[in-house]
Sequence to fold (428 residues):
Amino acid sequence: MREPKILMECDVLVAGGGPAGVAAGVAAARLGAETVILERNGFFGGNLTATGIDTMYAFYTVGEDQEKVIGGIPDDVVARLEAMDACYERPNTYGSGTGVTFSTPHMKVAMEEVVQRAGVHYLFHAFVPEVVTEGGRPAGLVFGTKEGLKSIRAAYIVDATGDGDVIASAGGSFEKAGENGPIQSCTTVFFMANVDVDRAKAFGKQAMWEAMREAHASGAYDLPRTEGSWHPTPFPGMIETNMTRMANVDTTDIEEISAAETEGRRQVMEYQRFLRERVPGFENAYLAKTGSTLGVREARRAIGDYVLTVDDVLEGHRFEDAIARCGMPVEDHHAGTDTRWVYVKDHSYYEIPYRCLLPQGLDNVLVAGRCLSATHDAHASARSSATAMGMGQAAGIAAAQALDANSSTQDVDVSTVQDILREWGAPI
Fold:
C-alpha cells in the first residue's frame, strides 16, 4: 500500500500501551530516546484496564518463602496506585503467589502519570494495521485514526501489541497459536456490586465449584467453566470474576473474535445469575460492568533467537542474557471445564533471556509481553502482567542502547541492559 503522509518521526516507536508497552516506552524515554507509544484504546493498561483483569501477578514467586522477582518501572506504577489508595496485595486463591489488586480506573491514571513523567509522546485511538518498510527493513508504522491512516517513522520498533501484529506485518518469524497445537481460551471479565463478601468467602471456593458442577449438570445453567474465581476489589462490596470461557478462538480473525465477544457477554449473564441464585452473599448483588474488550491470552508468539521452553520454566533455568525473572506456574486455560496448573521446581523462578525478545528476520524490532518467543506451555507462565512489564522495560532499554550504538538489536550489549535494570531496582 502507499504510505500515508508521515505524521512524525521518532527514535523508538512502541506499538501497544499495555503493561509491556508502557514499560518499554518509559524505559526508552528515560535513556534519552525520543519515544512514541501507539495505543488502540483511549487509555493505557491493555488487559489490565480494557479487559478488567484487575490484578497483576508475577511480582513474587509462589509458596511460603516468596521472593520478589520483578521490579523497576513496575514498582513505579504500583507506587502511583498506592499514592491514590487504589490497590492492595492479596494471595491468589489458586496459590500463584501474591498479586497486586487495583482499581482499573486508577490504573489508567497511574500509567498515564508514569508515561508523562518520562516524557513519552503517546497517541490513543491508534490502531496499527501495517509496517512501513524501506530497503526491506521496518522503518515505521501505519496506523488508523478518525482522520484516516497516518504514518510514523522510527529507527526501532517494539511490538507490545500482545498479538504480534508488528511481527506479522513486517515478515518476522512467528507461530500462530492453534495452528500447530492448543490455544488458550478467552475470557470476558465482569464485576458485581453489593456483594456480602464475608458470607461469600465463608461459603468457600470448593463449595462454589461443586455448586457450579451441579448447576451445569442439571441443565439449568450453561457454565462452560466450572472452577472459575472471584475476588474482592479495593472497593467495599464489589468483586471481580474470572469465570467465562470461549475456547479455540482465533483472535486474529475478525469473524471469530466478534462472535467470541458476544458469547462472552452471554456467558456473563449465566454466571452472574448462578452466583445470585446459588452462592450465599450474592443474593442482592448486581452486575456492575463487563470488560470493554475480550480477555485474550494467546494469539501469535514470536519465533526468536531463543524459544523459551516448558523445561526452562519448570526446571527454573537461568541464562547469561537474562532480562527478567518469573515464578509463575504454567496456567493453561485449555478448552475443558478446568485449568491446568504446573509449578516451577521448588517454587523458585526461571529467567527469560534477551534472545526471546528478538524475532528472527528483523534486526530493529523487539517484542515484549505475551508475544514473546516461547512455546505454548512456557507462554502460559510468562504471559503474566508483571513479567510483561519486566520484559517491556528491558526491550525499551535495549532499543535505546541500539540507538546510541547505531547497531542492530541483536548486537546490543546485554550486560549493559542488565546493569541498568539493576540500577532501576529490577532483580537480575
User: Anything to note?
Assistant: The first strand starts at residue 6 and ends at 15. The chain has two domains: 6-181+298-424, 190-290. The chain has a mean pLDDT of 95.
